[in-house]
Amino acid sequence: MRYLTARKRAEGKGAAGTGTEHFWYMKMSGVGLALIIPIFLVAFGRTLGGDRAEVLDAMSHPAMAILTGLVIFFGLRHYAGGAQTMIEDYAHGMTRRALIIAVTVLSYGMIATGLFALAKIAL
Amino acid sequence: MAETDLARTEQVERPLSPHLQVYRPQLTSITSILTRITGNALIVAALLIVWWLLAASTSDDYFAMADAVLTSWFGDLVMTLSLWAIWYHYLAGLRHFYFDAGKGLEIETAEKLGWGCIIGSVVLTVITLFLV
Prior knowledge:
The complex is a heterodimer of chains A (about 120) and B (about 130). Chain A has about 120 residues and is mainly α. Chain A is about 80% helix and about 0% strand. Chain A has one domain: 3 helical TM bundles of succinate and fumarate reductases. Chain A is elongated, with a radius of gyration of 19 Å. In chain A, about 20% of the residues are buried. Chain B has five helices and no strands. Chains A and B meet through helix 2, helix 3, helix 4 and helix 5 of A and helix 2, helix 3, helix 4 and helix 5 of B. Chain B: It is found in: Membrane.
């Protein structure tokens, strides 16, 4: 028996340093994506294959632009979280840190690119 | 004895737990690793779609190039496989919520859920292809 309060034991939040934050983010983004992905798959599938004017017209619809923006942002953040878990399972030390930085940079870079393109199309 | 063991600081050979290679593949383990594979593989489709959107926002020429890649036979193959991958990941994710709640962990139920993910993902892929 150690004389530690429950709070003291929780401080530092374990090996990950972030407690259940990462786990919980994956659950939350997963639920959110589950709500919008089916609609996005059909809407995007119908858009793909059209000529540029048709694509610009479809993507500039407010509902489609908002939906696509949400899918790009939360899809890629969810991806980075999952990829990080995979990296933590298989890579160690410097390699692990470098790969986690790489997927984080990739996900934010793609989010910025995707949202920029969407804004240019829809606004 | 115990004290001297604890005091040893050099690396000792520790027994390894049975590794992937010596495990018989089971439905539960295969459906679990497929969740990870499909989730991570979806980055390919994401890269293509973001590039295609950027091209659409830029110019006719750029769009023509990106669109030719996405709608080629290879693009169709990647998009169709990705469609299956996202449906598989979707169902496996729902299964994970169920597992996280401490339910469905009996072997028989877990295997049924595994078949549900496999068959369900194919069915949903076909339905989506009909809708688009």
